[in-house]
Amino acid sequence: MEYESLILKNLSDAKHERYLIQLEIHSVDLRLAKLETEMKFKSGLWGMIAGAIPAAIAIIYQILA
Fold first, then answer.
1. Range 36-40 contact pairs with CB under 8 angstroms and sequence separation of 24 or more
2. Does pTM top 0.70 for this prediction?
3. Distances (CA, A) of 59 to 15, 20, 29, 54, 55
4. CA distances in angstroms from 22 to 18, 35, 38, 62, listed in the order given
5. Tens digits of residue pLDDT in 7-44
6. What letter would DSSP give residue 1?
7. Does the pLDDT of residue 1 top 90, yes or no?
8. DSSP 65
C-alpha cells in the first residue's frame, strides 16, 4: 500500500511538471511569434525605405536634368 501511494504521488508530480513545461513552451511560442511579427514589420519598413531612396534620386535627377 505504501508503494502504491508513493507511485501515485510520483505520477501526479510528473503530470504537474509536464503541465508546467507545456505552459513554458507555449509562452516561448508566443514570444517567438511576437518577435517574428516585429521582424517582418521592420524588414518591410527598411525595404520600403531602401527602395524609396533610389526612386527619390531618380526623380530629382529627372527634375534637374
1. none
2. no
3. 66, 58, 45, 9, 6
4. 6, 20, 24, 60
5. 999 999 999 999 999 999 999 999 999 999 999 999 99
6. -
7. no
8. -
